[in-house]
Amino acid sequence: MKYLYIILLCFSNNLLAQINNQGAISTSMAGANVTEINIWSINNNISNIAYIEQAQFGVSVNNRFLLSGLTTGTVAFALPRKTGTFGVSYSNYGNTYYQQHTAGFGYAMKFGDNFSGGLKINYDYLNLGNVYGSTSIISGDLGLNAKLSSELNLGIAIKNPTLSSPTNSNEDQLPTIIQLGLNYSFSEELYTVIAIEKDILYPASFKTAFVYLPIENLRIRAGIGTFPTTAAFGFGTSIKGLQIDFAASYHQILGFSPEFALIYLLNK
What we know:
Layout: H1 2-11, H2 24-28, H3 41-44, E1 56-63, E2 71-80, E3 85-94, E4 99-111, E5 115-127, H4 129-132, E6 134-147, E7 152-159, E8 177-185, E9 190-199, E10 205-215, E11 218-225, E12 230-239, E13 242-251, E14 255-265
Antiparallel strand pairs: 1-2, 1-14, 2-3, 3-4, 4-5, 5-6, 6-7, 7-8, 8-9, 9-10, 10-11, 11-12, 12-13, 13-14
């Protein structure tokens, strides 16, 4: 079983990249998350939490490839204030042979009606088992959002621009990833996202997704991505102050990874 986990993690491109994109909304859109405005923006594009108007708490569980030892649990909290929005998050990923704990604190604010920016500081604790021991890393995320028109929105997120790593080896560094995306609304019921994501150590990945609202309180999402080839789908609904989202992504070699998330809107 130990060697099975190692093989699967290698197929996932980067051990330290397992919990970059979080939340069932992101998963259902194949990771095209840079323009999405929700509590999971804390981990995907910190600038977008500037548009959150109500304090909220989120919980998400992602199971990679239907294996119990490859599960990510995430909690997040967003608190909007007059000057901007604060966000905190914690994620845990791994098994007996590899564990990653990530805690983050971020802040985002608006610059006029059409722009927002944000900064997030992350603390990663890595436990590599009895042989390799443990280490910790401090890194940062940057995000920008621009409303180009009433239909078109631009987002950009940069993860780990400082190239932080536990050692001096580039092979061990946290991934440095840039995602640039456009969100176009055809109507109030339908919009699409087109994004390009580049890890500085790997070829660029192209992602596209759509979100459709056939009826009130029901959102249907789907997306595809390259490198690796990924297809994803999901849906979300709201019951009073509770938002429920389910998603699943499909890897061409390793199979399905389901995710379930809850977002609770707190009273103002």
